[in-house]
């Protein structure tokens, strides 16, 4: 049932007045069900909270989360997955939660991500994005199937005044709900530049040398492209483009400081809903054809291609092993199927299982990251190769980004097909799996195709 505004306000006020008078901050989280809302309008109307906005929409179900403002932000350097979980549990322990719905992604929800490799030296590009950062939004909009929910999360400090907080949030959330999306920017691309393309091919050759001499099985290498604009590029317009064009993908945007990390990734890392786990093996790539006949021929060739099947199998073996360690009833099909996207098609193997008692989503994320679809095999050797030879910092590219709630539901995707927006610049990232038979020119071309979704959404030249 949809609640009236006055009933919601009553609940909010009651939760605020029920706080414990303890000397540490306390989370108050109150959820209501609403009529449908323009989710991008909500994001846009939260402009005063720029730098603390989050957008997430899942690939295969109608599920959108929009976060505006931060009630609480968790950052951790050491033991980042474990520390995040611990801080989250500490906050929940003292929380006052009023959420009669208990729908996934409502109530207290944390959204954020982790960097690819905390051991790689930072060069300034990613200074707005720590090695781990998740936040509980102050205002959280949840679209789940046909239903829409609003959760207000507040961290109340011992000396805060309840009436002031109540007045602030009741005024702000109504503005957010009334937001309607409009294109904010009329921005042209003034320059488009591939970063060190020849060096990329040289590193691919070095990787195949290492593989031939059995020092590595597979390693994923990436490169960058830089787009410059006539003015600042607004995240909301980019999200809108991606939503229209990349319907088979997770669309995500995480603002932090002056930057926004945005993308449309097809690759789930792990999803948990009511103890059922899903993971995805996605590796092996060809472009889409220009005609249905060419498309079919490319797909059929992919599904039989030894080199691509090998790239894929490294991922399947590793994920299967990791999931078997924390699940029962693990199911992994024997061979991959095609996963077609707008610009590319991949080899795809879904993995499912029932989570063993007491295993948390962040533990699984830690176990899985990075899979051989983003790092390589063996894990440590491939990471060291990337650290030593890849001439840029991946930051959050190729890393887990996602959300989790207080009911043990959540989902993380791998942040590929992505770009870091920094005012009037965007840095795009694209990588590919290198195995023994990789050819540097072919891998270069594969990364060129993987840039296309972001180039198109940003208005660049294809
Ligand atoms: C690393 C990326 O993609 C990964 C590499 C793939 C491949 O080499 O075939 C396919 C899907 C992804 O696992 C990327 O898009 O940047
Ligand atoms: Mg490949």
From TrEMBL:
Residues 199-450 form the Chorismate-utilising enzyme C-terminal domain. The active site is at 218 (proton acceptor), 267 (proton donor). Its EC number is 5.4.4.2. Pfam families: Chorismate_bind. Mg(2+) binds at residues 311, 446. InterPro entries: ADC_synthase, Chorismate_C, IsoChor_synthase, MenF. The keyword Cell inner membrane does not apply. It catalyses: chorismate = isochorismate. SUPFAM superfamilies: ADC synthase. Its cofactor is Mg(2+). Pathway: Quinol/quinone metabolism; 1,4-dihydroxy-2-naphthoate biosynthesis; 1,4-dihydroxy-2-naphthoate from chorismate: step 1/7; Quinol/quinone metabolism; menaquinone biosynthesis. HAMAP family: MenF (MF_01935). Belongs to the isochorismate synthase family. Catalyzes the conversion of chorismate to isochorismate. This is Isochorismate synthase MenF. It comes from Pontibacillus salipaludis. The gene is menF.
